[in-house]
Amino acid sequence: MATSINTDEDSYELEEDKFKIEEWPIYWLTRVVSLYLAQSEGQLKRIGLDIPSWRVLMFLGKDHGASVSELADHAIAKLSTMTKIIQRMQAEGLVECSPRESDGRVTEVRLTPLGVKARADAWSISHRAFERAFGNVPIEETKALVATLTQVFGALKQ
Fold first, then answer.
1. Using 50, 70 and 90 to split pLDDT, how confident is the model at 24?
2. Backbone dihedral region of 144: left (phi > 0), alpha (psi from -120 to 50 degrees) or beta?
3. What tens digit of pLDDT does each residue of 138-149 get?
4. DSSP letters spanning 130-152
């Protein structure tokens, strides 16, 4: 059984006997993300961070708090896993937790001053990796990629 994805110019055949993995977008997304994270992880370890901590730091801004649930959603992690990550980061002095002012049942996570510094260091590493990955890609193409991935993510989340 063949499935076609129609585009303005062509259709994308998803027939098993014609399948070429190197033409499959998910193949390239997986490879790119895996390589980006592997390269970043080595740099992050040098400053005492790991990928889960990096994800939390990148989502939280200097003055931006988030609930554990929101962090889990953005990191595509289970709530129980994110809770453990936050507990570890709290023990390391990177984040602090308190009841959310608008709803005391929700735990709000915020960066500590040490977390703000760790975020700046992690941002520097992320920025270098981003420049290496996208430095030769025109900004219009990068924005189009983000728009496309946002659309794909939305379709998958339905």
1. confident
2. alpha
3. 999 999 999 999
4. HHHHHTTS-HHHHHHHHHHHHHH
Q: To which H or E segment does residue 56 belong?
A: helix 51-59
Q: Which two tokens stand for residue 73?
A: 């959603």
Instruction: Give the pLDDT confidence of 1-12 residue by residue, as tens digits.
Output: 445 555 555 566
Residue in the structure block whose two tokens are 């110019």 = 9
- Which tokens is 141 given? 């193409």
Task: Concatenate the DSSP letters of all residues of 91-108 into one string.
Answer: HTTSEEEEEETTEEEEEE
Measure Cα distances from 153 to 31, 118, 148 in Å: 17, 29, 9
- Count CB atoms within 10 A of the CB of residue 10: 9
pTM: 0.81
- Residue pair 51/44 in contact by the 8 Å Cβ criterion: yes
Query: E-assigned strands of the chain?
Result: 4-6, 11-13, 66-67, 95-100, 103-111
